[in-house]
Write a structure and sequence with these properties.
Helices cover 32% and strands 20% of the residues. By secondary structure, the chain is an alpha/beta fold. It folds into 3 domains: 145 residues, Methylthiotransferase, N-terminal domain (Rossmann fold, 3-Layer(aba) Sandwich), CATH 3.40.50; 237 residues, tm_1862 like domain (pyruvate-formate lyase- activating enzyme); 71 residues, Beta Barrel (OB fold (Dihydrolipoamide Acetyltransferase, E2P)). The strands form 5 sheets. Strands 1, 2, 3, 4, 5, 6 and 22 form a 7-stranded parallel β-sheet that branches. A 7-stranded mixed β-sheet has the order 19-20-17-16-15-18-21. A hairpin with an 8-residue loop joins strand 15 and strand 16. Helix 8 runs parallel beside helix 9. The longest helix has 24 residues. The structure holds iron/sulfur cluster (SF4). The site of iron/sulfur cluster (SF4) has 9 residues, from helix 6. The site of iron/sulfur cluster has 9 residues, from helix 6.
Length: 494
C-alpha cells in the first residue's frame, strides 16, 4: 500500500530494543514504511529519544524485567514531543506490544498504533486509519499469516544480512517469553531461503546470518531429516557468498550432521554461539533445558575435533531460582572446561508471564550480583587467554561500519574475523590502500584484549568486494540525507 503523501513525504524513525530478531524486524518495518512512501528521518535522535520524525516506531522487547517501565517511560517523554509536533504519530510494535496489547493505549492514549509481531505489514494501513479516524488502532494477530521475509525490507548493511529461516519456538524454557509471544516454530521453505540469499549476494552481500530461535529444529515440522545441515551445504554452493553464520542453535537438537556441514562447507564460518544457560544439571532441569552438562561439553568437543579453530561463545544466566552455591560452582567449572571465546552473561530477573517468575527460591539480588561478578572475571580471564593465542596469526577480516578503537593517534577500522572475533585494524596511510566496510583483507594480530584484537601491522591481500562497492554507492546516495549514514533506525538503550 502507498499512502498518499503531501509534498514533503512523511519521515519515520524506528527505535529498536532487544535481540537480532527485533533488529531484523525493524529492517522489515522500515521496508514496509518506505514502500508506503515514508522516508527515513534526516536528523539523528538522541540515543533512544527520537524527536523529529512524523512517525516514530518503538520496536519493543519483553525479555527484560524492566522492559515495561522503559517503554512507558519513553512513551511518557513522547507525549511532550508529540504535543510540539502536530501530526506526529507514534506506533508500538514488537514483543511488549504483543504482551501488553490491552494496556498500551490505556496507559499512553497518545499512542496511535499498537501492532503485533505477526502483522508488521499492516503498519502503514493502521497509521493511515488512525490519522483519518482520529482513533488509536490496535491490531495483534496471534498467528503468522505471511512469513515476515516476504515483506519489503530496508537492510541496514549492504554487505552483511540477516536471513530468517524460522520464527517462533517449540521449546518451553521456563525463563523465556518467546514461545508465548512469537508462537510455535514456523519454518520457511529452503528454496525461499536460498532465493533470498542469492538475491542478497547479487546486490553485494558478502555475509549472511541464518536466523531462527532454534535453527536445529529447522525442517522438523516438514518431516525432513538433517534439513539445517542441508541448508548450510546449499549456502556453500551460492557463488559469491563468502561467509555464512547462524544463530541460535540449541544443545538439545544440535547433531553431528551440522558439525560435518560446518567443517565441510568452506564459506560456513568456524564460529558457534551455543547457549549454555547453566552448568548445573539441576538448574537446567528447572529451566526446562533438556540437555545436561556432559552432553554440552560433548558437543563442544565434537565441534573442536572437526573445526580446531572454531571460536565458541555462549549465553549464561546467573541466579536462576533455586540456584545454590554448588550449582553456581558447576557453572564456573563448566566455563573453565569449555574455554569460551566470549560469553553473554545475564543476571536472572523475573520476566512477567514466564513460569520462572513465580518459582519459589528466588535468589537474593546481592547473591546474584556477587556470583555474576565472579563469573564475568573467570570468563574474561579465559577469553583474554584465548585472544592472546591469536597474536602473531594472520586472520581474514571483513570490515564493518564504524570507526574502530583509536589510541595514540592511530585510527582504525573494525571488522570481524572468520571466527567472529572483533578486530580493530590500523588504517593504511593512503586512501587507495584503505578498506571500505564490506571489503576483506588479511591482517596480522598484534595485540589482544579480552574483548577484541588489534592489528597494527600493514594489511595485505586487500579484496575490494561487491559489498564494499555497495556500501560506497549507498554512502554517496545518502550524502545530504543524514550524517549518520544509516538514518531511520536507531538502537534503543537496553
Ligand atoms: S529455545 Fe528456549 S530460550 Fe530459546 S527462544 Fe525457545 S524457549 Fe526461548
Amino acid at each position: 500500500m502507498t499512502i498518499t503523501q503531501p509534498n514533503n513525504p512523511h519521515t519515520y524513525q524506528i527505535v529498536t530494543y532487544g535481540c537480532q530478531m527485533n533488529v531484523h524486524d525493524s529492517e522489515r518495518i522500515a521496508g514496509v514504511l518506505e514502500t508506503a512512501g515514508f522516508v527515513p528521518s534526516e536528523t539523528l535522535p538522541q540515543p533512544g529519544v527520537p524527536a523529529d520524525a512524523d512517525v516514530v516506531v518503538f520496536n519493543t522487547c519483553a525479555v527484560r524485567e524492566n522492559a515495561g517501565n522503559r517503554l512507558y517511560g519513553n512513551l511518557g517523554h513522547m507525549a511532550t514531543v508529540k504535543a510540539a509536533h502536530p501530526g506526529m504519530q507514534i506506533a508500538v510494535g514488537g514483543c511488549m506490544a504483543q504482551q501488553d496489547r490491552a494496556t498500551v493505549i490505556a496507559r499512553a492514549p497518545w499512542v496511535d498504533v499498537v501492532f503485533g509481531t505477526n502483522n508488521l505489514g499492516s503498519l502503514p494501513v493502521l497509521l493511515e486509519r488512525a490519522r483519518v479516524e482520529h482513533t488509536s488502532q490496535v491490531e495483534i494477530k496471534e498467528a503468522l499469516e505471511i512469513f515476515p521475509s516476504n515483506l519489503p525490507t530496508r537492510r541496514e548493511s549492504p554487505y552483511s544480512a540477516w536471513v530468517s529461516i524460522s520464527v517462533g519456538c517449540n521449546n518451553t524454557c521456563t525463563f523465556c517469553i518467546v514461545p508465548h509471544l512469537r508462537g510455535h516454530e514456523t519454518d520457511r521453505e529452503p528454496e525461499a531461503v536460498l532465493a533470498e540469499v542469492r538475491a542478497l549476494v547479487a546486490v553485494g552481500v558478502q555475509e549472511i546470518t541464518l536466523l531462527g530461535q532454534n535453527v536445529n529444529t529447522y525442517g522438523v515440522e516438514r518431516g525432513e531429516r538433517q534439513a539445517f545441515a542441508k541448508l548450510l551445504r546449499a549456502c556453500g554452493e551460492v557463488d559469491g557468498l563468502r561467509r555464512v553464520r547462524f544463530t541460535s542453535p540449541h544443545p538439545k537438537d544440535f547433531t553431528t550432521d551440522v558439525i560435518a556441514a560446518m567443517a565441510e562447507t568452506p564459506n560456513v564460518m568456524p564460529s558457534l554461539h551455543m547457549p549454555l544457560q547453566s552448568g548445573s544439571d539441576k538448574v537446567l532441569r528447572r529451566m526446562h533445558r533438556p540437555y545436561r552438562r556432559e552432553r554440552f561439553l560433548g558437543i563442544l568437543n565434537d565441534v573442536r575435533c572437526a573445526l580446531p579453530d572454531a571460536a565458541i561463545t555462549t549465553d549464561i544466566i546467573v541466579g536462576f531460582p533455586g540456584e545454590t552455591d554448588i550449582d553456581f560452582e558447576a557453572t564456573l567449572d563448566l566455563v573453565r572446561q569449555a574455554r569460551f571465546a566470549a560469553a553473554f552473561t545475564f543476571q536472572y530477573s523475573k520476566r512477567p508471564g514466564t513460569p520462572a517468575a513465580t518459582m519459589p527460591d528466588q535468589v537474593p539480588h546481592a547473591v546474584v550480583q556477587e556470583r555474576y561478578e565472579r563469573l564475568v572475571a573467570v570468563i574474561e580471564e579465559i577469553s583474554w587467554e584465548e585472544n592472546q593465542r591469536q597474536v602473531g596469526r594472520d586472520v581474514e577480516v571483513l570490515f564493518a561500519e564504524g570507526e574502530g578503537r583509536k589510541d595514540a593517534g592511530t585510527r582504525r577500522l573494525s571488522g570481524r574475523a572468520r571466527d567472529n572475533r572483533l578486530i580493530h585494524v590500523a588504517l593504511p596511510d593512503t586512501v587507495e590502500q584503505r578498506p571500505r566496510p564490506g571489503d576483506i583483507a588479511t591482517v596480522q594480530v598484534t595485540y589482544a584484549a579480552p574483548h577484541h584484537l588489534i592489528c597494527d601491522a600493514p594489511l595485505t591481500g586487500l579484496i575490494r568486494t561487491a559489498g564494499g562497492d555497495a556500501w560506497e554507492a549507498r554512502e554517496r546516495a545518502e550524502i545530504g540525507m543524514s550524517n549518520a549514514g544509516r538514518p531511520g533506525i536507531v538502537q534503543g538503550a537496553d
